[in-house]
Design a protein that fits this description.
Blueprint: E1 2-5, H1 11-14, H2 16-25, E2 27-32, E3 35-43, E4 51-56, E5 74-79, H3 94-108, E6 113-120, H4 128-142, E7 148-153, H5 158-163, H6 174-190, E8 194-197, E9 210-211, H7 217-224, E10 246-247, H8 267-276, E11 293-296, H9 304-319
Parallel strand pairs: 1-4, 1-10, 3-11, 4-5, 5-6, 6-7, 7-8, 8-9
Antiparallel strand pairs: 2-3
Helix pairs in contact: 4-6
Protein name: DUF1848 domain-containing protein
InterPro entries: DUF1848 (IPR014998)
Length: 320
């Protein structure tokens, strides 16, 4: 099974102590985002977890504890954008985050750290030229520390539209998207960085940009050294190319306070969740009341029957 850590919140930045405690305990309780009385028990062991995908804007708290992941395979989706604190209100300075990115890359290898420059939006301040300047600076700093950059254009869901109203965001048509994508591709190519898109319907192949998968079966196969055939995750958006995974995060818990975030949609719930956080608890930011229905999540290695067939074939050959 592939575990996502996490689309719903930044566990590496804010809850890494909790995560490593859960790893030691061997399980985590995940609250159903639509019904908090339904809880899944997800086992965390090398027999069932094939790979962790970490999503973060700042992996600094994990840098000194990576040896605790020695028994597991993993890679990072690491977001660095050009926005200031009027948009990403609680992120550290770009210089410090870039330093963290480079240190992490040296520790785990550049193929295991994917740079995300997303979501992209435009307004009177964050113009196309602004993005081009900053993207060039980032590419210059990250060249040799990653092979790939994932981009996407901001989707204004109802809750994000409300939260970003103060930014006076300009609606991007296909022409604008193509202009931005083309220029970013030109810049990235100069720095030996491949660009792929995330959940975008627009075809940008004319600029050498493929539609990507953040939870990517090809990268996973390479990291675990085992060719796997995995199905698309039907729980994600239609345009999402990610394969199936289990997310162990919780909505309304991310403390970056980014205005465009879809995972934080209620300020009161966010503040309440932060107060409930206990690094020693089996849940991330939720206090069990005792009336929850806890179900053990069925988890099986993605190697599945293919590994069993290989083992059987090996045993037959040895018996000859």
């Amino acid at each position: 099974m592939i575990l996502s850590v996490s689309r719903r919140t930044d566990i590496p930045a804010f809850y890494s102590e909790w995560f490593f405690n859960r790893l030691k305990e061997g399980f985590v309780y995940v609250i159903n985002p639509f019904n908090e009385r339904k809880v899944s028990k997800v086992e965390l062991n090398k027999e069932t977890v094939d790979l962790f995908v970490f999503w973060t804007k700042d992996a600094e708290p994990m840098l000194k504890r990576l040896d605790e992941l020695n028994e597991f395979k993993y890679y990072f989706q690491f977001t660095i954008t050009s926005y200031r604190n009027d948009v990403e209100r609680m992120t550290r300075k770009k210089k410090d985050i870039i330093d963290t990115f480079r240190i992490l890359s040296k520790k785990i290898g550049k193929e295991k750290i994917i740079w995300r420059y997303d979501p992209i939006f435009l307004n009177d301040f964050y113009t196309k030229e602004y993005h081009y300047r900053w993207f060039e600076r980032f590419c210059d700093k990250l060249e040799g520390y990653t092979d790939k950059c994932i981009i996407s254009f901001l989707d204004l869901y109802k809750k994000t539209e409300i939260n970003t109203r103060c930014l006076n965001i300009h609606k991007m048509d296909e022409k604008s998207m193509r202009q931005v994508a083309k220029q970013l591709s030109i810049i990235a190519n100069k720095h030996n960085i491949i660009i792929e898109t995330c959940s975008e319907g627009i075809d940008l192949s004319d600029y050498g940009i493929k539609k990507g998968s953040c939870i990517d079966k090809n990268l996973i196969s390479k990291i675990i050294d085992f060719g796997v055939e995995l199905k698309k995750d039907n729980n994600q958006r239609e345009l999402c190319g990610c394969v199936k995974s289990v997310d162990i995060g919780q909505y309304n818990t991310c403390k970056h306070h980014c205005l465009y975030c879809y995972a934080n949609f209620n300020e009161k719930l966010l503040n309440d969740s932060i107060l409930k956080y206990n690094p020693k608890a089996p849940t991330l930011a939720y206090t069990l009341k005792g009336d929850e229905k806890i179900t053990v999540r069925e988890m099986e290695s993605i190697k599945g029957n293919k590994q069993k067939q290989l083992d059987l074939f090996k045993n037959i050959k040895q018996g000859e």
